[in-house]
Each structure stands twice: as C-alpha cells, then as structure tokens.
C-alpha cells in the first residue's frame, strides 16, 4: 500500500458515491409506496398517538424500500418479509432497551447475522441491515416493555399495508421480468448490428444471465406469468451462436464480396427484429416489424449467394427470429389466433419452467450458504465481523458523547458498510454528504416553521415518496430524503427538537469514519484473489470447449429429437458455468481497480490481456457449438483426444495461474499434431472447419500464457516453462 494508492482510491470511491445515474423513474410506484406509508401513519396516529405512529411509519417505510430492491421475488412477499423481520427486531430491541448491556449484546448478535445475510443476496442483505438501523431509532422512542408487542404489531402491519397496496394497485406487473427479457433481446439486437462492422465483436452475456435468473418462478407464478415471458429467452440464447458464426470469416461468410454484403443485410434485419421484439416485451404490446427487415429475411437468393457454413447459419436464423417474435407475441393477438383455431381461449398451460424456491424453502439454502462462508478468508464473514464490532463501538461512543441521540453513529455504520471496499467507502462519503444536506434542510424547516403534527407527517411522507422515486439514481440523493424523513418523523413524536444539526452531522461523520477505518484495519481485498477468479474462468471455459469438441467425436450422444442449434445438456451446463465465472471475474476486476493495494503479480495490463484471451476461447467454442453435428452424422475420432486434452490442460493451467506460474499447452498441441496425422472419415461434416476451430482454441490459450508471462522476468518464465513441461510430459505418458 502507498499514500498515492490510498489517495487515488479515496478519490475514485468518493466520485462513485456521488455519482448520479440516469434511470427511468417510476412515479406511480413512488406514489403507491408513499400512500401506503400515509395510511399507516394516519391510522396509527388517530388510534394510538404519535409514538405508535412513528413505529408503524418505520415499518411501512422499510417495507416500501424492500419492494424497490433488485429482486425477482414478488413485491408483496418482500414487503411482508421486511415488515415481519423488522417487527421481530424491534420487539427484541424494546425488551432489552432498558438494559444497556443486554441491548448491546443483542445489537452485536443482530449485526453479525445481518452481515452473514449477504450470502442470500443483496436484497436480503439490505433488508437485514436496514432492520438493525431502524431498530436503533425505534427503541429510543418513549414506550414501556408492556407496549413492545403492540409496537411490533404495528410495524408488521406497516409491511402488510404495503403488500396490500401492491396487490390492490399493481403498477407494471412483471415489470422487472419484462425489463430483463427486453434487455437481453435488445443486447442481442445490438450485437447483430455490431457484427456488421466487426465480425469478431465481443458480447457481454450478463443480460442473458439476468434474464435467466428472472425466468425462475414458483409453480404459482408459472400459472400467472404472461405468455410472452415464456420462451423468448431460450430462443435468444440459440440465436447468438448463429449470428456469430454467420459473421465470422473463419466460420461463415467471406470477408469481402457478395456473401459479406448479404450477411450484412441479414444481420441488420436480425437487429431490427430483435429490437422490435424487445420493445413489445417491455411494454406488453404487439410486435411491429419493419417491412425492410422482413423483406431482407425473405429474400430468396440466400441459398444461391451463401455457401457452406454461412448458408447453414442463415437457414437457421430466419426460423429462430420467427420463433422469437411468436414467443413474444402480445397476449391479445395470441388469444385471438387461438380462438380462430380452437374456439374459446383457455388458460395458458403451465409447462416446464425454472424453479425458484419460496421463502420457506429458501431458509435451509441460506443457512447452508452462511455455513459455507464461515472461514477466515471469506469476505462475507469478514464483513459480518467488521459490522458487528464497529456498530457496537459506534453505539458505545454515541452514548458516551454529549451530543444526544447517539444512534445516528451506529445507524450510519450499519447502513454504509458493505462486503467490498469500494461500496463501503463510496457510501460513507455519500451518506455524510446526503445526510448533511437532508438534516440541514429538514432541521431548518422544523426550527423556522414549527410545523404541527399533521404538517410534520405530511413532510415525512413527501420525503419518503421522493426517496422512493429517486432511490436508484444515486445513494447520495436518496440519503438526502432519508435524513429529512427521519427528522420530520421524529419531530412528529417530539423526539427531534432536542438535537441540533451539528450533533446529527457529527455523529454521521463519526459513523462513516468508523466504517472506513474498520475496512482499512480488517480488510477483505479483492486484488489478491484476482488470480483465483481468472483460474476459475479458465477451468469453466476449458470444460465448455471440451464438451463442444467431444460432441464432434460422439454425435450419437446428442439427445434424440433435439432440434438443430439447441445445445446438448452438458454443453449448456458448461456454458452457463463459464458465463457465471466470467461475470464473477469482471465484478472482481472492477472492485480490485478501486482498491489501494498492489496488484500482487497480475497487473491491470496483464488482466486485460488475459480477459481478451479467455473471451476468445469461449467465442471459438461457441462458434464450434453453432455447427454441432446431428445424431446421425459420422463421428470425428480425433476430436475425442482433443476434448480430453483441453479438459486436463485447462485444469492444470488453472493451477499454474493460481500459483503465479505461466501455463503451457503442450498436451493440446500434441493432440492437434495427432489430429493432423489422422485422416478424417470421408463422411465427417466439415472436418476442416472443426480443425480450424481447434487451432483457434490453442491460439487463445497461448495468448493467455503470453498475457501472464512478464517480459521483465525471463527467469521466472523459464522456471515455469520447465515445470509445466514436466507436468505436460506426465500427462502425455
């Protein structure tokens, strides 16, 4: 570490904390959340008074935030889970609040569990952290132990009301799932257009993986899911290798000439069709296709202009695009067509779907995930220890300082701390800035106007509504309205008038500094783990490539009746693993780029070059997948040896990457030499194409080795070469 590194890291994280993103706002969702909050506060205030009203308001407020998290679960379920968990937290806080030692123990246990909750996903982690923060506020309100159950019930009722509002006043049902599928289709359309100008253009599979995650539903959801969300994603997955193989000069059309011109027309038409389908899915509207795109796809000269693999890819493209449009067809149009065919429309039958466990089934899975993180090197465990220790310390310091309402310090700690460095530091700076603005404005309004209870409630609801509206535009902006909401709400109960702006800001600053110091003292840096992430990606890429190549050696192993272009189960499984490893690598690389630590042998330049190499390895495997032979095709025996060599060599290469050595690929090279010495069967489909692809796989692996071999360390590279040769010789024997 160095001072320059820390200064750079602080600058970058502060910039990310104050970043404002342009997101599509959903005003009706914000209005619905604010209306649910107003109902809870108004009824509780009228029946029980300001103290209970504040408790109910926090329950409804937190439930509203939970429904806005990036989660594929139904919004009412999130609201109910948030209200129930906050009610339990607050009830226990009330019971122990009168005894500082017991409450501190509860706070430590609760924050530790909230830290471990991140193993179940960001949405669960945010809800758990918010529960602790709100518990710190609500237990300071004047109440008795006998009233603890009543306050907890009102908090749970707040979650129930928000859930009821979602059911009674739905806004864009299945909106997140529609957006995920539309984003995947739009990304595929953009990919098709980029291939027109760059035949080897890269493709980020993250939109496809997000759409896949969104497609997981419970059996009940499967019966209610709109028909246009059923099958378009799987078809888009099959279109991607067809587009790539059509555009690539080595696997498709020639680089120049009539073939290339025809391919550009087809790619432009595909991009237009996919964009139109994406717009229809996002808005739940009929698909309107451009006449020019339809004309390009229906031009009859494709068979005469294109030859070989390019013709085969083009023949698959048009039916796949037609199937995508049909799968995304508007329900009204589909029902009209079905009535014409079969009479009155019936409910859409529930077929196979990706299963998503319900909350009760999720609990044992979450417990197993948490147990798996109980080791010293786990970032989640380190986060749980940090947040537990620092929140407890913040509570003690806040109570000891003569500032009053010291919960602002531990509340800041638990809200800003995250398992990674960049988010913790960025949120700490953003929370301080947002709190400063929000507290100054809200406290200034309170002291200048002395609003009555009704006006304070209205201002609190307005602040919550603005926070709901702008939550996804940036953390600093949301904190302005969160801070104002807390000030106005506490003023309703008479709890906020005794604390000054200076006290609140100083305690928030104290909490942020404690969170930042804790990460510096007990970090969980991503930079030292980059080689392990890269090795994981290499292993999964190797297994994917090996699975594809193996099917050329055993075409009969493909499932009977499987349509052309649809991957075999083992190919699909390894492809998904490769994508997950790629996404994990990119996320880790992004986090590491903001950390103030040395690269430990994997410089940013080497990481970028290795990224390009593994992306090329996966791309070539995908191109080979696009031309997998049918079950009745003649086998290509040489492919079996190459598949085995790829699998074992990438596993050994991954071990070398983890150990800081340069991997070598002698086993793969030897397999290709044996391939060249063996004449392929005359009836084998495109043996030259497969052999060319195999050579490109080796080129990508050697590109990875060059990326990881430092030019200024020849002696280290020589040692690694000698050791790798010994391993390769053992493998050949």
Automatic annotation (TrEMBL):
Secretion signal span: none
Matching InterPro entries: Memb_transporter_dom
Membrane topology type: Multi-pass membrane protein
Places the protein is found: Membrane
Biased composition (Basic and acidic residues): 330-343
Pfam families in UniProt: FUSC_2
Alphabetic keyword roster: Membrane, Transmembrane, Transmembrane helix
Residue ranges of domain Integral membrane bound transporter in the record: 395-517
GO CC terms of this entry: membrane
Residue stretches spanning the membrane: 77-95, 102-128, 148-169, 384-408, 428-446, 476-493, 505-525
Residue ranges, annotated region (Disordered): 330-353, 707-733
Protein name in UniProt: FUSC family protein
Species this chain originates from: Streptomyces paludis
């Amino acid at each position: 570490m160095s001072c320059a590194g820390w200064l750079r890291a602080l600058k970058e994280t502060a910039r990310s904390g104050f970043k404002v993103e342009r997101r599509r706002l959903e005003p009706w969702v914000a209005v619905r959340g604010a209306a649910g909050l107003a109902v809870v506060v108004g009824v509780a205030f009228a029946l029980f008074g300001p103290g209970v009203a504040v408790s109910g308001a926090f329950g409804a407020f937190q439930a509203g935030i939970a429904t806005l998290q990036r989660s594929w679960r139904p919004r009412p379920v999130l609201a109910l889970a948030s209200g129930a968990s906050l009610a339990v937290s607050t009830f226990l806080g009330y019971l122990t609040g009168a005894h500082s030692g017991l409450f501190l123990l509860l706070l430590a246990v609760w924050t530790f569990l909230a830290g471990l909750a991140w193993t179940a996903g960001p949405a669960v982690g945010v809800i758990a952290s918010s529960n602790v923060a709100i518990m710190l506020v609500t237990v300071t309100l004047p109440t008795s132990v006998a009233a603890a159950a009543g306050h907890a019930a009102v908090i749970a009722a707040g979650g129930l009301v928000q859930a009821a509002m979602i059911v009674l006043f739905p806004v864009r049902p299945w909106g997140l799932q529609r957006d995920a599928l539309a984003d995947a289709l739009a990304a595929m359309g953009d990919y098709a257009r980029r291939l027109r100008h760059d035949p080897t253009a890269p493709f980020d599979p993250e939109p496809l993986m997000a759409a896949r995650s969104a497609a997981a539903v419970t059996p009940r959801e499967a019966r209610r899911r709109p028909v246009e969300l059923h099958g378009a994603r799987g078809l888009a997955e099959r279109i991607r290798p067809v587009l790539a193989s059509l555009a690539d000069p080595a696997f498709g059309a020639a680089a120049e000439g009539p073939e290339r011109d025809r391919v550009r027309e087809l790619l432009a038409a595909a991009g237009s069709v996919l964009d139109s389908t994406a717009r229809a899915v996002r808005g739940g509207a009929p698909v309107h296709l451009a006449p020019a795109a339809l004309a390009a796809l229906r031009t009859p000269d494709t068979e005469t202009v294109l030859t070989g693999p390019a013709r085969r890819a083009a023949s698959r493209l048009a039916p796949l695009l037609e199937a995508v449009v049909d799968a995304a067809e508007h329900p009204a149009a589909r029902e009209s067509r079905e009535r014409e065919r079969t009479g009155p429309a019936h409910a859409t039958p529930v077929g196979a779907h990706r299963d998503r466990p319900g909350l009760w089934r999720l609990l044992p899975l979450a417990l197993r995930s948490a147990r798996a993180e109980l080791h010293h090197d786990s970032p989640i465990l380190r986060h749980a220890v940090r947040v537990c220790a620092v929140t407890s310390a913040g509570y003690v310091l806040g109570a000891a300082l003569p500032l009053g309402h010291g919960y602002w310090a531990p509340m800041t700690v638990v809200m800003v701390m995250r398992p990674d460095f960049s988010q913790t530091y960025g949120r700490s700076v953003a929370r301080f800035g947002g709190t400063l603005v929000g507290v100054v404005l809200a406290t200034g309004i309170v002291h200048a106007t002395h609003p009555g209870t009704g006006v304070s409630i209205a201002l609190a609801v307005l602040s919550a509504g603005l926070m709901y509206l702008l939550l996804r535009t940036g953390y600093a902006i949301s904190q302005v309205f969160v801070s104002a909401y807390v000030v106005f709400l506490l003023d309703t109960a008479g709890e906020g008038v005794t604390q000054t702006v200076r006290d609140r800001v100083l305690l928030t600053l104290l909490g942020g500094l404690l969170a930042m110091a804790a990460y510096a003292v007990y970090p969980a840096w991503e930079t030292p783990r980059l080689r392990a992430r890269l090795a994981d990606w290499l292993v999964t890429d190797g297994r994917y490539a090996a699975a594809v190549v193996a099917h050329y050696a055993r075409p009969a192993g493909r499932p009977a009746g499987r349509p052309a272009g649809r991957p075999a189960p083992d190919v699909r499984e390894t492809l998904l693993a490769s994508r997950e490893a790629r996404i994990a690598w990119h996320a880790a690389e992004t986090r590491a780029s903001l950390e103030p630590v040395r690269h430990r042998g994997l410089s940013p330049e080497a990481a970028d070059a290795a990224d390009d190499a593994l992306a090329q390895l996966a791309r070539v495997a995908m191109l080979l997948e696009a031309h997998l032979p049918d079950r009745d095709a003649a086998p290509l025996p040489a492919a079996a040896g190459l598949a085995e060599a790829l699998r074992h060599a990438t596993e050994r290469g991954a071990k070398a990457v983890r150990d800081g050595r340069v991997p070598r690929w002698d086993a793969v090279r030897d397999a290709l030499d044996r391939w060249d010495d063996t004449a392929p069967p005359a009836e084998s489909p495109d043996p030259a194409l497969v052999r060319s692809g195999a050579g490109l796989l080796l080129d990508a692996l050697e590109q990875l080795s060059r990326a990881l071999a430092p030019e200024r360390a020849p002696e280290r590279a020589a040692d690694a070469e000698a050791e790798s040769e010994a391993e390769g010789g053992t493998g050949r024997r």
